[in-house]
């Protein structure tokens, strides 16, 4: 990735980390009007950054969070003693003559901080496989897929606009947002040969469709009563979880 693209991803990650805090803080200081103002500004900034990544830098299907968190357990560096053992050419493994089982040799046992329970070959293979998956370039998007990703990126702005036009109690913003989400996923479903990160992102978006059951006005009219009834039944008839459900 180029340096400008990395900066865009960094700013996008920062916005996603602070947007809820900014919304709550603004509502506390400037009230409801300030809350909706900061929501619109943050969503507009996120949409602009994502469209730049999609159309200018050809970033493909974008994940959330934009920057994949670092797995520190997989990135543990070798300690100086381990590096000396590797450079000295000591055999790291011993193969049993009759069982053919591969075990670590006592001479090359690493320090406690970097010790693991798998064989060195398994760890090296898994690390190289993960590195290849992380470094895979994004899948090129055609016109249909670019439109689908653009719909997903602009959906929050269109949802906010519909809320301003029809109000928060109307079904139209809820329906518009759901139609845009489903349309985007349907258009992206034709893509083949996606890498692991992109497949995980599409699965995440599909699972997030369940959140529409918890969004107003559907939640206020249908889901709330059923969920509360289920919680009451659990509290009354299932021992041990009544305190939590109540």
TrEMBL record:
<feature type="compositionally biased region" description="Polar residues">
    <location>
        <begin position="106"/>
        <end position="116"/>
    </location>
</feature>
<feature type="region of interest" description="Disordered">
    <location>
        <begin position="74"/>
        <end position="140"/>
    </location>
</feature>
<dbReference type="Pfam" id="PF08610">
    <property type="entry name" value="Pex16"/>
</dbReference>
<dbReference type="GO" id="GO:0005778">
    <property type="term" value="C:peroxisomal membrane"/>
</dbReference>
<keyword id="KW-0576">Peroxisome</keyword>
<comment type="similarity">
    <text>Belongs to the peroxin-16 family.</text>
</comment>
<protein>
    <recommendedName>
        <fullName>Peroxisomal membrane protein PEX16</fullName>
    </recommendedName>
</protein>
<dbReference type="GO" id="GO:0007031">
    <property type="term" value="P:peroxisome organization"/>
</dbReference>
<feature type="compositionally biased region" description="Basic and acidic residues">
    <location>
        <begin position="122"/>
        <end position="133"/>
    </location>
</feature>
<keyword id="KW-0962">Peroxisome biogenesis</keyword>
<dbReference type="InterPro" id="IPR013919">
    <property type="entry name" value="Pex16"/>
</dbReference>
